[in-house]
Amino acid sequence: MSKLREDIFGVEVNKHVLWEVVKWQLACRRQGTHSAKTRAEVSYSGRKLYSQKGTGNARHGDRGANIFVGGGVAHGPKPRDYYYPLPKKVRKLALKMALSSKAKENAIVLIDGFQLGDVPKTKKAVEFLKSKGLEEKKVLIVIPERDFVVERSFRNLPKVKVLPVEGLNVYDTLWADALVITIPSLDKIYERLGS
Question: Whole domain around residue 170: which residue ranges?
């Protein structure tokens, strides 16, 4: 691991910072399209069920009230955006910490590149993982930029994710048991995270 720069792969890990960034990432991914109908929106008449007094029953308004089955929901979810801002410095630091934790676990494999040919082949992808002893592990493959052949070759493997350097993030880094990084990607990581 002597090739790895200390200022990016040797940072002290702070679990709270990692938690904060993972929480932010997952919040940003949420669709927020959930919706429940209020009593104003359910399909019921607004007629008062029966007289206010004299029936011996509890007083009620219309059938769409939230205490009735099929009535509106009192404080149900409405479509919303879960995004909230998080300083870039914190996001950058967390990614350095995530990479550092993998370096500390000796879970980073550096390679020159992929020789998968011009056509995507899952078979070749499996052979590559076996040659590195990673076939049973969750693997994150980091490539310099989007590559159709590499992405398609690994796409059908459930335990493998392929990301270009610009898409590298804390959540996926921590998810993986091992990182496979190409040498050109390493230069780009230094470029992106270098202070």
Answer: 89-193
